[in-house]
Amino acid sequence: MFNAVLSQNAFFVSLSLFAAGAFGSLLLRKNDDAANWWGNLLAIAGAVFGIISSASVIFSNSDFSFAAASSFPLLSFSFNVDKLSAFFIFTISLIALFASVYGIGYAKHFYKKYNLGTLGFFYNAFIAGMLAVVSSGNAIFFLIVWEIMSLSSYFLVIFENKEKENIKAGSLYFIMTHAGTAFITLAFLVLYGATGSFDFGTMKQNIGNISPLTRDIVFILALIGFGTKAGIIPFHVWLPSAHPAAPSHVSALMSGVMIKTGIYMMIRIFIDILPGVQPWWGMLILAIGIVSSLLGVLYALEENDIKKLLAYSSIENIGIILLGLGSSLLFLSLGFKSLAVLGLVATLFHIFNHAIFKSLLFMGAGSVISKTRTRNMEKYGGLIKRMPQTALFFLAGSMAISALPPFNGFFSEWMIFQSLFSGIRSLDSSFQWIFILAAGALAFTGGLAAACFVKAFGITFLGRPRSGGAEHAKESDYFLTAGMSLLAVLALIVGIFSGKIAGVFSGISGSLGIFRSVEPPFTADINNFRLNDGFASVSTPVIFVILLASITAVFAVVHFLANGRKIKIGRTWDCGTNLNPRMEITSTGFSRSIITIFNGVLKSTKQIDVEYHDADMRYFPKARTVKLEMKGIYNSYLYRPIRNFALRFSGYFKMIQSGNVNTYVAYIFLILIILLIIFTF
Amino acid sequence: MTTLIWIIQLLLVPVLSPLFIGIVRKIKAKLQNRNGAGIIQPYRDIRKLFQKDEVISEDASWIFRFAPYLVFSVTIVLGFCIPLLSVSFQNNFYSDFLVVVYLVALSAFFMALAGMDAGSAFGGFGSSREMTVAALTEGGLIFSMLSLALSAHSTNLFSIAGFVSSSPVASLVPVILAFAAFIIAALAETARFPFDNPATHLELTMIHEAMILEYSGKRLVLMEWAAANKFFIFMALAANLFFPWGVSLGTGFSGIAAGLAILIVKILILCLFVAVLESSIAKFRFFRLPDLLFISFILSAISISLIL
To 10 degrees, what angle do helices A116-135 and A2-27 make? Predict the structure, then answer.
């Protein structure tokens, strides 16, 4: 009981701190420094209370709910925090904590250029909005806080409004996120129609007699609505332009946690609220996962803008998360509840891991961008010597996201593999094929992600500087490196103690009604994680220790054997020419072979223009330009047809628009008559 | 006794691996009507290089200096993870085949970074090609071993070896398909024909050699030795996962000794295969390689569907 009071109070303290942070920085907007410190310090404090609150829910079973009625009939300010919500509150607060530490330093380069007060306002509102989204217990209240989250992130995307590109990215985001919200609203209205309540708890109780058709409609609407926020292909178009446009610590939050709120609602609705999961739901989600992970990583590989590369890689990771969620749903629909727990734990683990390493990578990118003043990777190079700490932390993030042991990405990907293998093992052939495809997609995705992050790290930090900006870059200040270093250490610690953490996540999935009293199919303790049927086991601490021991031993032996040999510093071998940065491999060049191999799906185009000195003779070219472009297949097969249809459709309506006011009055009169006739009979 | 066997297992890979590189080279030389260097030449090279000074590029960072240690250490750990002599070393900690795949990826990751570090055009393109090939190999590698894991009901490499050695000959068709897939992936991972030419040192299409072009002295030893270890490990996996007969089931001395002898014979046969392959076909054009790797993936997918 005491704990329930503690967690509830801590949660509201956290929300009030964010509110104070938001309005306080608005009041202090005249003074850049004060607004920056106030906004971020209050966010740090709010995040700490968020962590305390959610940790106490997770570890001492102190779920709480709180509702305050409002003067509107259907709306109540209702919070309902169970362990699943607490997991998301914990993840959001954790990332918000590090992002705010980082933000104190990062926002300094906006001084005198942009208004720090509005940044602090929307930043705090954004985090508070996310916390409210994952804890709200009423659909109308949910839509309100969902809008707070979406709108404040929209204003953060267009914060650097002197660059036209950002405004454009913001508009796209605005349209897409509201299109998504429209679907969500429809889903809630259908649920209201079936259950007579907007309260999630009541919905769950009354939903027993929902018709299968209504249930499927809710599934599709929610999948599109929340999928748009999560960034699944083909509804991802806003993500690669919006995430990079925001300030880097906000990008870290958007890519690290905001897109996961979509996944949270999918888990909440598909597993918790809706009864009777259908097999095709799981198969559809697995299919979306396959497409999003593979295409996401291929688009990421092609990118030369470092933040866009990271944004596409978020789409890839959402795909991987959906592979876990889809397998969980499919198991659930076929009655394999225990395997469904495995899938869900893998999903939660990857959500947590991706939050850590993706925000780390965005912060690393931000650190580089703030010193080189460009997002174009072709202008980087050699930064490991100029920004050694940023380089080290970015390397940790790159290794984690490539699922390399001993970092955290390895274990969650291993678990998702095991979840998919379980599907191949225990289902019959009408479902096995999708699991085989999913496992294949995950295998290729893993390899391609490693290639992508070798490119991201190698082109950015290794070799020689390719521009003056990179040449004269210096290490970022203390707050930036502090935020990154904590996340990098966390990525390693979570990687080492994966077994223990998987045990905690297993408790979280076990708290969902449907999984109560279901034995998880695995045993997780600190030094070993194994599936109970003996199919697989792994121990991340042992792998870490033997890797470390082996490196130490090799180092000692080699040092002994090569004792007394000197090291000379020389120039890179250059075939006798003068080395210059243009001889290094470029970002475009690095991924070109993979792009060529996958040209069938990527449809890349190459356009060569030559400008001649003399237009008649055409012997002496003055300038040559090569334009490499990639037309997304989603554009040519989804968005363009929709646009063409909309244009053609509106074309037909042109006929009735004469521009003459009298005609319009006649229309109104006609409609009135028709309505009168309809309602009188 | 057990400790002794552990030590043998630990040292087996680094001690024996240069020998098999020497043997492959010798067989190739014979097939080309040359005499070739002695089969212990790789050991002499190691000794020689350890006595040389090193030159490191001024553009290189600590990644370049650290990578050889990591790449070599990973191969030592890999030697520890896989069934070499006896299946009685089964453990629940690190012998999962996904661990092996991701450890291989770890070494490829650092090797590719080291290739880019000195800022030479060769290194960068070597890294780009290496990661392209590695990314496409992963599917075939995971699926070929998955096919065995599904029939053995375990992803543990030791259990797989134990299961396949006790299964009847009639169930061999999927094993052979998976073996073909695995061999293709192994040739790609170990930078052999038709993926890469291990004999070249200056060719514009080289992959592995391009990445380590800037190395000299002790770090070159580590890189070359790690490549030899990797070759040994993949050949040993091919031998002991797909044809595990002769692998000891206990910890008895005679069983271990026999296991070692049979392992060496099996790897010698594979070396002969590799040498004949390298003398009889040409290296593939780079953009033909994906076809081969997809074949490896499809073969293992067929093998899986036969098992289910």
Answer: 160
